[in-house]
Write a structure and sequence with these properties.
The chain is of the alpha+beta class. The chain has two helices and four strands. It has helices at residues 3-13, 62-87; strands at residues 18-20, 31-36, 39-44, 57-59. A four-stranded mixed β-sheet has the order 1-2-3-4, covered by helices on one side. Helix 1 packs parallel to helix 2.
Length: 89
């Protein structure tokens, strides 16, 4: 997978909370992918916009990082959809 593919998937599937590149500050319930000094980093934030330490992964190549990024976004969408169905919010 490449960046163009990932952007297309996010847009086509309406995946929530996606950030390509390190934002100036973190946002609540988001998934971020960015290039670090030693490769690619994918992480998630919680409802208070804090980085979840156990939700941070490091990759040596872009394709694996993007696969993980899209997988996390899809899981979040499934969770949000189920939560709306069960609890109405």
């Amino acid at each position: 997978m490449n960046l163009r593919d990932a952007i297309s998937i996010v847009e086509a599937e309406g995946l929530p909370g996606a950030f390509f590149g390190k934002p100036e500050h973190d946002y609540a319930d988001s998934t971020v992918i960015h290039r670090g000094d030693n490769g690619w980093i994918v992480y998630v934030t919680d409802e208070r916009a804090s980085v979840v330490p156990t939700g941070t992964s490091h990759f040596t190549n872009e394709s694996d990082a993007l696969d993980d990024f899209i997988s996390r976004l899809r899981d979040l969408k499934k969770y949000n959809d189920l939560s709306k169905k069960l609890f109405g919010h």
